[in-house]
Amino acid sequence: MSNSLTFIILLSDIIALGVGVFAGKYIFKKSFDQKEKDAQDRASEIIRNAEQSAENIKKDRILEAKEKYLRLKTEFEEESNKKRVILQTNEQKLKQREQSLQQTVEQNKRREHELEALKNNLNGQLETATKKREEAEKMLSQQVSQLEKLANLTADQAREQLVDALKAEADTRAGSYVKSAMEEARLTATKEAKKIVIETIQRTAAEHAIENCVSVFNIENDDIKGKIIGREGRNIRALEAATGVEIIVDDTPEAIVISGFDPVRREIARLALHRLVQDGRIHPARIEEVVAKTRKNIDDEIVEIGERTVIDMGIHGLHPELVKMIGRMRFRSSYGQNLLQHSREVAKLCATMASELGLNTKLAKRAGLLHDIGKVWPEESDLPHAILGMELAKKFKENPEVCNAIGAHHDEIEMTSILSPIIQVCDAISGSRPGARREMMESYIQRLRDLENMAMSFDGVEKCYAIQAGRELRVIIDADNVSDEKAGMLSFDISQKIEKEMQYPGQIKITVIREMRSVAYAR
């Protein structure tokens, strides 16, 4: 019984297993068929998409090929049209040139016929003139022969006697004319010169100012001096560094002294001090700011003064740099005479004198106003102010006569224009007028003596001469005791000693002359 039950159970398990296997196989086959169908569907879709993409790409390529074909066709047609137009134009030009050449050939043929006719005409006239000349020469020779028989002289002898007589008469008349002209000039030259100079001086009037190398800044009380000096002197050092002048704060009541050779810097320092004292804020940063603003204002004022001066003088066409230098003259003095007023006076004197002499007054006035511009050139230069002024005038395209007058007014170069001596004379008149310059005769002579004595103190110096109002010092040395190398060092040593021990305006040229003389006697 138990075995039957076991068999039944085992049989049921086998049946269940078979049913399960069959069911699994059926399910697997059904799933596989579904996946195979899905794969076929995806493959078909991919194929369709690929065919569609290929078709689109084919269409795009066809369109691009058509567009490129149309573009190339258009470019080819345009290029062809251009070449066709050029060919047509060239054909027209060739036709025109061919017509012009034909016309030229025809004109040349007509001219050849005209020239041939003219040549024949000239040949006929030449033959006629030749015959007439031969007849005239024959008649002239006959007349000369008759005259020679009558005068018992040949033609050459008669010609020489006539020429000698005319020469003698001309010499006599010329001598008498020159003598009378010289006598008249000698009688009237001095009188006319005095008249021109006196009238020129009397017709010129100008204001004059006396300026030194020192400016005085007035203050209300001495407490301000402490603020200007600052802690440990930092304010006054900053002010001196910014302006380039020396500021002297001493026991002088209610005054501060500003010292410096450059009057523009002194004016900047004075105005900057005035603004700082009014503001009350005095420290290095504020000092630099105020000095910078003041310098800009002074530069603008210089340009304004220059423009106003040239307008007042009626001078036009000056270069802006020359106008600016004219404005700088207002702050420059020469021997105590304000340089701008001096130049204005010289310009008026020159214009008046040129007018009296019948010369160009505009050029004379221009040269007179510019004759001292070399003194206000802001850069350092070893040239004399006259030569420097001439170079500046040439640089800024001034008239050659004006340039020569500027360079020659102290005889540094040769005078090549009639304006040059006029500028020199008017400069001397303006400077030598009593009261124009503060330097008295005694101090002037003493300065020249000191200059000569200083040079004579060196060994080997035989003679020394101060010339050109102390602007040049000529030193003659003993050639036996001083060599050429030592002569060069001597000029440098003298210049250094003058710079250290003397005060003078402008510059002094030191010329050392070493002359070797060999003397022998024939007895």
Automatic annotation (TrEMBL):
UniProt-listed SUPFAM superfamilies: Eukaryotic type KH-domain (KH-domain type I) (SSF54791), HD-domain/PDEase-like (SSF109604)
Domain of life: Bacteria
Chief location: membrane
Cellular component annotations (GO), alphabetically ordered: plasma membrane
NCBIfam families: HDIG, RNase_Y
EC number of this enzyme: 3.1.-.-
Transmembrane segments: 6-28
Role this protein plays: Endoribonuclease that initiates mRNA decay.
Family affiliation: Belongs to the RNase Y family.
Membrane topology, as annotated: Single-pass membrane protein
GO molecular function, one term: RNA binding
Swiss-Prot/TrEMBL keywords: Cell membrane, Coiled coil, Endonuclease, Hydrolase, Membrane, Nuclease, RNA-binding, Transmembrane, Transmembrane helix
Subcellular location: Cell membrane
Coiled coil: 40-153
Annotated InterPro entries: HD/PDEase_dom, HD_domain, HDIG_dom, KH_dom, KH_dom_type_1, KH_dom_type_1_sf, Ribonuclease_Y, RNase_Y_N
Protein name (Swiss-Prot/TrEMBL): Ribonuclease Y
Gene that encodes it: rny
